[in-house]
Amino acid sequence: MPTGSYPFHAFGGHDAFPINRRFYTFRFPQQHPGFRIEEPGIYFLGSYKVKDTGTIFSSNYEIGVVSTPAERQVLEKILPHTQGTLWEARLRRRLEDLK
Amino acid sequence: MKRLLATLPWLALSACIPAARRAVQAPSDLRPGEVLLVGRVKITPPLGKEDQHLSGMAERWRGMTLLLVGEAPGPPRQPLTPSEYRGRIEAPLDRDFAVAVPPRPFYLRGGVVHLRLAGEVSDEALLPGGFLVDLRPDDRAVYIGTIHYHRDEFWQITRVDVDDEYERVNAEHRKRWDPAVPLRKALVSFPAPRPR
Questions:
Q1: In terms of CB atoms within 10 Å, which of A13, B2, B4, B96 comes out highest?
Q2: Quick count: other Cβ atoms within 10 Å of Cβ B9?
Protein backbone atom coordinates (compact mmCIF):
# COMPACT_ATOMS: atom_id res chain seq x y z
CA MET A 1 0.00 0.00 0.00
CA PRO A 2 1.26 3.52 -0.66
CA THR A 3 1.89 5.81 2.27
CA GLY A 4 -1.14 7.80 3.38
CA SER A 5 -4.16 7.80 5.67
CA TYR A 6 -6.65 4.97 5.48
CA PRO A 7 -10.04 4.99 7.14
CA PHE A 8 -11.85 1.73 7.78
CA HIS A 9 -14.73 1.69 5.32
CA ALA A 10 -16.50 -1.65 5.27
CA PHE A 11 -16.11 -5.37 5.57
CA GLY A 12 -18.31 -8.31 4.77
CA GLY A 13 -18.66 -12.03 4.44
CA HIS A 14 -21.01 -14.96 3.96
CA ASP A 15 -23.03 -16.50 6.73
CA ALA A 16 -22.37 -20.14 7.50
CA PHE A 17 -25.66 -21.65 6.55
CA PRO A 18 -25.00 -24.04 3.66
CA ILE A 19 -28.11 -23.47 1.57
CA ASN A 20 -29.35 -19.93 1.92
CA ARG A 21 -25.97 -18.21 1.82
CA ARG A 22 -26.14 -14.45 2.13
CA PHE A 23 -23.41 -11.88 1.84
CA TYR A 24 -23.28 -9.30 4.60
CA THR A 25 -21.60 -5.94 4.38
CA PHE A 26 -20.95 -3.82 7.44
CA ARG A 27 -20.00 -0.18 7.15
CA PHE A 28 -17.84 1.60 9.66
CA PRO A 29 -18.85 5.08 10.80
CA GLN A 30 -16.79 7.82 9.18
CA GLN A 31 -15.93 9.09 12.65
CA HIS A 32 -13.70 6.15 13.45
CA PRO A 33 -9.95 5.95 13.99
CA GLY A 34 -8.17 4.74 10.88
CA PHE A 35 -4.50 4.16 10.34
CA ARG A 36 -1.63 6.08 8.81
CA ILE A 37 1.23 4.59 6.84
CA GLU A 38 3.96 7.16 7.05
CA GLU A 39 6.94 5.05 5.98
CA PRO A 40 7.46 1.66 4.31
CA GLY A 41 7.27 -1.32 6.61
CA ILE A 42 5.06 -4.05 7.98
CA TYR A 43 2.03 -2.87 9.89
CA PHE A 44 -0.25 -4.99 12.05
CA LEU A 45 -3.70 -3.47 12.47
CA GLY A 46 -4.81 -5.85 15.18
CA SER A 47 -7.49 -8.51 15.43
CA TYR A 48 -11.16 -7.68 15.67
CA LYS A 49 -14.35 -9.50 16.44
CA VAL A 50 -17.90 -8.55 15.50
CA LYS A 51 -20.61 -9.09 18.05
CA ASP A 52 -24.34 -9.12 17.32
CA THR A 53 -25.98 -7.11 20.10
CA GLY A 54 -29.29 -6.54 18.35
CA THR A 55 -32.67 -8.18 18.55
CA ILE A 56 -34.82 -9.83 15.90
CA PHE A 57 -36.56 -6.47 15.51
CA SER A 58 -33.53 -4.23 15.32
CA SER A 59 -30.09 -5.24 14.11
CA ASN A 60 -27.11 -3.82 15.91
CA TYR A 61 -23.51 -4.84 15.58
CA GLU A 62 -20.41 -3.85 17.48
CA ILE A 63 -16.81 -4.47 16.70
CA GLY A 64 -14.03 -4.67 19.25
CA VAL A 65 -10.35 -5.46 19.49
CA VAL A 66 -9.41 -8.99 20.58
CA SER A 67 -6.03 -10.28 21.64
CA THR A 68 -5.73 -13.20 19.23
CA PRO A 69 -4.47 -13.87 16.67
CA ALA A 70 -1.55 -11.68 17.71
CA GLU A 71 0.90 -10.18 15.26
CA ARG A 72 3.36 -13.00 15.74
CA GLN A 73 0.77 -15.69 15.02
CA VAL A 74 -0.33 -13.89 11.87
CA LEU A 75 3.21 -13.44 10.55
CA GLU A 76 4.08 -17.09 11.22
CA LYS A 77 1.06 -18.12 9.17
CA ILE A 78 2.03 -15.86 6.28
CA LEU A 79 5.74 -16.72 6.33
CA PRO A 80 5.57 -19.99 4.32
CA HIS A 81 3.85 -18.10 1.48
CA THR A 82 6.69 -15.59 1.18
CA GLN A 83 9.48 -18.07 0.58
CA GLY A 84 11.90 -16.81 -2.04
CA THR A 85 10.49 -13.26 -2.06
CA LEU A 86 11.83 -10.03 -0.59
CA TRP A 87 9.14 -10.27 2.06
CA GLU A 88 10.58 -13.41 3.59
CA ALA A 89 13.61 -11.65 5.07
CA ARG A 90 11.50 -8.74 6.25
CA LEU A 91 9.02 -10.99 8.00
CA ARG A 92 11.83 -12.95 9.64
CA ARG A 93 13.37 -9.70 10.91
CA ARG A 94 10.03 -8.59 12.28
CA LEU A 95 9.50 -11.96 13.95
CA GLU A 96 12.93 -11.62 15.56
CA ASP A 97 11.89 -8.19 16.90
CA LEU A 98 8.75 -9.70 18.40
CA LYS A 99 10.64 -12.40 20.32
CA MET B 1 -16.54 -1.73 21.42
CA LYS B 2 -17.34 0.47 18.46
CA ARG B 3 -20.83 0.56 17.08
CA LEU B 4 -21.16 -0.27 13.42
CA LEU B 5 -23.58 1.69 11.33
CA ALA B 6 -27.16 1.06 12.17
CA THR B 7 -29.67 0.50 9.42
CA LEU B 8 -32.38 2.63 10.95
CA PRO B 9 -35.25 3.99 8.89
CA TRP B 10 -33.80 7.42 9.50
CA LEU B 11 -35.59 9.18 6.74
CA ALA B 12 -38.89 8.16 8.29
CA LEU B 13 -37.66 9.26 11.70
CA SER B 14 -36.47 12.60 10.41
CA ALA B 15 -40.09 13.48 9.75
CA CYS B 16 -40.85 13.28 13.48
CA ILE B 17 -37.79 15.14 14.78
CA PRO B 18 -38.90 17.71 17.39
CA ALA B 19 -38.71 21.41 16.61
CA ALA B 20 -35.44 23.33 16.66
CA ARG B 21 -34.86 26.67 18.39
CA ARG B 22 -36.41 29.36 16.25
CA ALA B 23 -33.96 31.22 14.04
CA VAL B 24 -34.39 34.96 14.43
CA GLN B 25 -34.13 37.20 11.40
CA ALA B 26 -35.42 40.48 12.81
CA PRO B 27 -35.96 42.06 16.24
CA SER B 28 -39.69 41.65 15.78
CA ASP B 29 -39.17 37.86 15.74
CA LEU B 30 -38.35 37.88 19.45
CA ARG B 31 -41.31 37.18 21.71
CA PRO B 32 -41.66 38.70 25.18
CA GLY B 33 -39.20 37.09 27.60
CA GLU B 34 -37.04 35.56 24.90
CA VAL B 35 -33.29 36.10 24.56
CA LEU B 36 -31.39 36.49 21.33
CA LEU B 37 -28.50 34.01 21.36
CA VAL B 38 -25.71 34.61 18.87
CA GLY B 39 -22.74 32.36 18.19
CA ARG B 40 -20.92 30.29 15.62
CA VAL B 41 -19.58 26.77 15.12
CA LYS B 42 -16.46 26.21 13.07
CA ILE B 43 -14.71 23.00 12.06
CA THR B 44 -11.09 22.91 10.87
CA PRO B 45 -10.50 21.52 8.29
CA PRO B 46 -13.94 22.53 7.03
CA LEU B 47 -16.60 20.18 5.76
CA GLY B 48 -16.04 19.30 2.10
CA LYS B 49 -18.75 19.23 -0.55
CA GLU B 50 -18.47 15.44 -0.80
CA ASP B 51 -18.52 14.83 2.94
CA GLN B 52 -22.29 14.74 3.27
CA HIS B 53 -24.68 12.37 1.53
CA LEU B 54 -28.13 13.61 2.39
CA SER B 55 -31.43 13.23 0.62
CA GLY B 56 -35.04 14.21 1.04
CA MET B 57 -35.86 16.16 4.19
CA ALA B 58 -32.31 15.72 5.46
CA GLU B 59 -31.06 18.14 2.77
CA ARG B 60 -31.92 20.97 5.15
CA TRP B 61 -29.00 19.86 7.37
CA ARG B 62 -26.35 20.21 4.67
CA GLY B 63 -23.44 22.37 5.84
CA MET B 64 -24.91 22.52 9.31
CA THR B 65 -24.18 21.27 12.79
CA LEU B 66 -27.03 20.54 15.15
CA LEU B 67 -26.23 21.64 18.70
CA LEU B 68 -28.10 19.42 21.13
CA VAL B 69 -29.19 21.18 24.29
CA GLY B 70 -30.28 20.17 27.77
CA GLU B 71 -30.38 21.05 31.43
CA ALA B 72 -27.41 18.76 32.18
CA PRO B 73 -24.02 18.77 30.43
CA GLY B 74 -23.93 15.03 29.70
CA PRO B 75 -23.39 13.87 26.12
CA PRO B 76 -26.37 12.69 24.08
CA ARG B 77 -27.20 9.02 24.30
CA GLN B 78 -26.32 6.84 21.36
CA PRO B 79 -27.77 5.78 19.07
CA LEU B 80 -29.39 9.19 18.78
CA THR B 81 -33.15 9.20 19.08
CA PRO B 82 -35.49 11.97 17.86
CA SER B 83 -36.02 13.22 21.44
CA GLU B 84 -32.32 14.15 21.66
CA TYR B 85 -32.97 16.77 18.98
CA ARG B 86 -35.60 18.63 21.02
CA GLY B 87 -34.83 22.36 21.15
CA ARG B 88 -31.62 21.97 19.14
CA ILE B 89 -29.80 24.91 17.63
CA GLU B 90 -29.30 24.53 13.91
CA ALA B 91 -25.99 26.25 13.34
CA PRO B 92 -24.74 26.73 9.77
CA LEU B 93 -21.04 25.92 9.82
CA ASP B 94 -18.71 28.91 9.92
CA ARG B 95 -21.62 31.36 9.85
CA ASP B 96 -23.21 33.17 12.76
CA PHE B 97 -26.43 31.73 14.10
CA ALA B 98 -29.08 33.81 15.89
CA VAL B 99 -31.85 31.98 17.72
CA ALA B 100 -34.50 32.78 20.31
CA VAL B 101 -34.09 31.00 23.65
CA PRO B 102 -35.69 31.27 27.10
CA PRO B 103 -33.74 33.43 29.59
CA ARG B 104 -32.29 30.65 31.74
CA PRO B 105 -29.00 28.72 31.72
CA PHE B 106 -28.71 25.57 29.66
CA TYR B 107 -26.00 23.31 28.26
CA LEU B 108 -24.81 22.63 24.76
CA ARG B 109 -24.45 18.87 25.18
CA GLY B 110 -22.76 18.18 21.87
CA GLY B 111 -22.97 18.72 18.15
CA VAL B 112 -24.08 16.44 15.35
CA VAL B 113 -22.95 16.72 11.75
CA HIS B 114 -24.99 14.38 9.61
CA LEU B 115 -22.66 12.76 7.10
CA ARG B 116 -25.09 10.28 5.60
CA LEU B 117 -28.86 10.26 5.73
CA ALA B 118 -29.83 8.49 2.58
CA GLY B 119 -31.65 5.23 2.11
CA GLU B 120 -31.67 3.26 5.34
CA VAL B 121 -28.14 4.04 6.52
CA SER B 122 -27.35 6.91 8.83
CA ASP B 123 -23.93 8.14 9.83
CA GLU B 124 -22.94 11.19 11.75
CA ALA B 125 -19.95 12.85 13.35
CA LEU B 126 -20.41 13.79 16.98
CA LEU B 127 -18.77 16.91 18.34
CA PRO B 128 -18.04 17.07 22.07
CA GLY B 129 -20.10 19.40 24.22
CA GLY B 130 -20.74 20.16 27.84
CA PHE B 131 -20.68 23.95 27.37
CA LEU B 132 -22.69 26.03 29.78
CA VAL B 133 -24.68 28.86 28.19
CA ASP B 134 -24.94 31.08 31.24
CA LEU B 135 -28.01 33.22 30.58
CA ARG B 136 -29.43 35.63 33.13
CA PRO B 137 -33.09 36.50 33.67
CA ASP B 138 -32.53 40.10 32.49
CA ASP B 139 -30.63 39.19 29.32
CA ARG B 140 -31.96 40.42 25.96
CA ALA B 141 -29.07 39.48 23.64
CA VAL B 142 -26.06 37.28 24.41
CA TYR B 143 -22.97 36.35 22.41
CA ILE B 144 -21.44 32.95 23.27
CA GLY B 145 -18.40 32.91 20.94
CA THR B 146 -17.24 30.65 18.14
CA ILE B 147 -16.93 27.04 19.18
CA HIS B 148 -14.01 25.94 17.05
CA TYR B 149 -13.45 22.20 16.60
CA HIS B 150 -10.20 20.90 15.14
CA ARG B 151 -10.40 17.44 13.58
CA ASP B 152 -8.14 14.94 11.88
CA GLU B 153 -8.86 13.01 8.70
CA PHE B 154 -10.79 10.38 10.69
CA TRP B 155 -13.15 12.92 12.27
CA GLN B 156 -11.41 12.58 15.63
CA ILE B 157 -11.67 15.89 17.45
CA THR B 158 -8.13 16.90 18.39
CA ARG B 159 -8.81 20.26 20.01
CA VAL B 160 -11.67 22.57 20.95
CA ASP B 161 -11.26 26.33 21.23
CA VAL B 162 -13.76 29.06 21.99
CA ASP B 163 -12.81 32.00 19.79
CA ASP B 164 -13.81 35.51 20.78
CA GLU B 165 -15.14 37.48 17.78
CA TYR B 166 -17.22 39.83 19.88
CA GLU B 167 -16.01 43.04 18.21
CA ARG B 168 -17.11 41.89 14.76
CA VAL B 169 -20.37 40.31 15.92
CA ASN B 170 -21.28 43.29 18.10
CA ALA B 171 -20.67 45.71 15.21
CA GLU B 172 -23.00 43.63 13.02
CA HIS B 173 -25.49 43.36 15.87
CA ARG B 174 -25.64 47.13 16.28
CA LYS B 175 -26.26 47.60 12.55
CA ARG B 176 -28.83 44.82 12.23
CA TRP B 177 -30.59 45.13 15.56
CA ASP B 178 -31.67 47.85 17.92
CA PRO B 179 -28.43 49.45 19.23
CA ALA B 180 -30.28 50.10 22.47
CA VAL B 181 -30.30 46.35 23.11
CA PRO B 182 -26.75 45.57 24.24
CA LEU B 183 -25.15 42.27 23.21
CA ARG B 184 -23.69 40.80 26.37
CA LYS B 185 -20.54 38.74 25.93
CA ALA B 186 -20.78 35.44 27.78
CA LEU B 187 -18.37 33.06 26.09
CA VAL B 188 -19.04 29.42 26.75
CA SER B 189 -16.23 27.56 28.43
CA PHE B 190 -15.10 24.01 27.98
CA PRO B 191 -15.55 22.02 30.09
CA ALA B 192 -18.54 23.82 31.55
CA PRO B 193 -18.44 25.27 35.06
CA ARG B 194 -21.39 24.63 37.33
CA PRO B 195 -24.29 27.06 36.86
CA ARG B 196 -24.56 29.88 39.36
A1: B4
A2: 10
